[in-house]
Design a protein that fits this description.
The chain is mainly α. The protein has a domain of 204 residues: Orthogonal Bundle (MetI-like fold), CATH 1.10.3720. Helix 9 packs antiparallel against helix 11. The protein is globular. The protein starts with a helix and ends in an 11-residue tail after the last helix.
């Protein structure tokens, strides 16, 4: 028997050690990915949940500690709002006015959506025209500012006189509020393209249309979606304001808010406020989702926050 026959094989030792290291690394990577996924989930939902709990606690504190019992109808506790306005576990019945509030919210949402779409069409067109011509920008931009600074409540009577106190007037109110953020942010994005990129397109002999569609519009998308987020909330506000004043046809959530306040139906009023907030949140989330799908692969604004 020789020494070479009993000595261990170096290749076998190296290969087995390598496989052990690879297995340990893959196991560590898998556990790290699972841990990071759970951490991101908790990190994204934890702060809003804590804030929500603090708001509910503050609500209870104001109701029971600051308000006298005879004045608690002004701010009923959350469980009473839920029991009266949404669903009563004791009687097994839904709130008497919950169906009307949901239907009014959907009607208001339809007006806000139509107004936002019209504002996008007008706003994008005007912004592109202004980005292509300094003369057009000097001619139109001041009037866009005028639309923004005039209080919508001052224009509501004129809108009603000219177009009637109906659904069409609600849409016009939405357009007036949502228009300026779209124009301003789209124009800013179109004019913020790096000069070096413009020089490359000039060297390539690109046409104005190619420069707009292949360079300026893609580069302006982050600013455009910022304007859309602002305009979406403004459109919902315009629809609710329109409901207050344009009372012909089916009542929107704004009109129901006014009715509940007049009748001191506090629980139903809070439910209507919550539904109005949910409507605005839905608009904001949908715009954010579209922005994330379009921008996350190349722009840091839609990256993962820590």
């Amino acid at each position: 028997m020789t020494l070479t026959e009993s000595a261990p094989d170096d290749t076998t030792i190296v290969s087995s050690s390598t496989s052990t290291i690879v297995d340990d690394t893959s196991t560590s990577d898998t556990s790290t990915r699972k841990g990071s996924g759970v951490g991101r989930f908790v990190g994204s939902l934890g702060p809003p949940a804590i804030t929500f709990a603090a708001i509910i606690g503050l609500w209870y504190a104001i109701t029971y500690l600051l308000l006298e019992e005879r004045r608690r109808f002004l701010l009923p506790p959350p469980h009473e709002v839920f029991d009266t306005g949404i669903y009563s576990f004791g009687s097994g019945e839904w709130g008497n006015n919950l169906g009307d509030s949901i239907q009014g919210t959907l009607l208001t949402g339809r007006a806000a959506l139509v107004g936002l779409i019209i504002a996008c069409i007008i706003g994008f067109t005007v912004a592109i025209m202004m980005s292509q011509s300094k003369y057009v920008e000097r001619a139109l931009y001041p009037y866009a500012v005028v639309i923004q600074v005039i209080p919508i409540l001052a224009l509501v009577p004129l809108i009603g006189f000219w177009w009637g106190f109906n659904f069409r007037s609600r849409v016009i109110a939405c357009v007036l509020i949502a228009l300026f953020p779209i124009i301003a942010n789209t124009l800013f994005g179109l004019k913020s393209t790096e000069q070096g990129h413009h020089d490359l397109f000039t060297l390539a002999g690109a046409s104005r249309w190619t420069r707009l569609t292949k360079l300026q519009l893609p580069a302006a998308l982050p600013a455009i979606f910022t304007g859309l987020r602002i305009a979406a909330g403004g459109s919902v506000i315009g629809a609710i304001v329109g409901d207050f004043f344009f009372r012909r046809g089916e009542p929107g959530i704004g009109r129901l808010l006014d009715n509940y306040a007049k009748d001191l139906q506090t629980a139903d009023l809070f439910v209507a406020v919550i539904l109005s907030s949910i409507l605005g949140i839905v608009f904001f989330v949908v715009i954010g989702f579209i922005a994330n799908r379009l921008l996350r692969s190349w722009h840091e604004s839609e990256g993962t926050a820590t």
